[in-house]
Design a protein that fits this description.
- It is a single chain.
- The chain is an alpha+beta fold.
- Helix content is 20%, strand content 41%.
- The protein has helices at 6-12, 16-19, 66-72, 108-111, 127-139; strands at residues 27-41, 47-54, 59-64, 81-91, 94-104, 116-121, 141-144, 146-151, 157-161.
- A hairpin with a 5-residue loop joins strand 1 and strand 2.
- The longest helix has 13 residues, at 127-139.
Length: 174
């Protein structure tokens, strides 16, 4: 069911495996299929839920508090295809992803924040290639942020958000 959304998910959402590493207090747009849903009652008797969502790249569990659960209505169901605005939080010393808002996955292009991710190998990070990349990005100026993802020889990875002067427009040539 996610196949027809694969491109939109890659352009407008943070991949689920990366969400767990978001700094506390940072928001992200994610999307996918609700794989599991467990409802419980709060101390006040209001319904809340824990959902497991998958996006084809991974899965994660998120907390849905009563206000958001009520507002989302039928969007919170097993096999539902949803977009979610989430917040990275810490509760009792444990990382926690909290759903702030839910919307139909079809609305992702209007609700998500597109970005361009450029993947580089550590050995490609040399002044000549970086200058060439900077020139290319400047020739395609626009509003989309650019994330440079550098993979190290040791399997590690670092993400660097390029400055505002390197934002690009989306095009097939890019």
């Amino acid at each position: 069911p996610l196949d027809r959304y694969r491109e939109a998910l890659s352009v407008y959402t943070v991949p689920l495996p990366e969400v767990a590493s978001l700094p506390e207090g940072e928001e992200a747009i994610i999307g996918g299929r609700i794989k599991a849903l467990r409802k419980i009652a709060t101390k006040n008797g209001d319904p809340m839920a824990f959902i497991t969502i998958e996006d084809g790249r991974g899965e994660l569990e998120a907390t849905v508090f009563p206000r958001v659960l009520e507002a989302g209505g039928d969007l919170f169901a097993v096999d539902a295809l949803v977009g979610l605005r989430v917040l990275s939080a810490v509760r009792n010393g444990t990382p926690n992803i909290v759903v702030q808002e839910a919307f139909p996955l079809d609305a992702l292009p209007k609700r998500g924040r597109a970005r361009v991710v450029i993947e580089l190998r550590e050995e490609d990070v040399v002044l000549e290639k970086i200058n060439e990349l900077a020139g290319y990005l400047k020739r395609h100026r626009g509003d989309l942020p650019v994330l440079l993802r550098v993979s190290g020889r040791d399997g590690g990875r670092i993400d660097v958000l390029a400055g505002a002067g390197f934002r690009v427009s989306f095009s097939e040539r890019l």
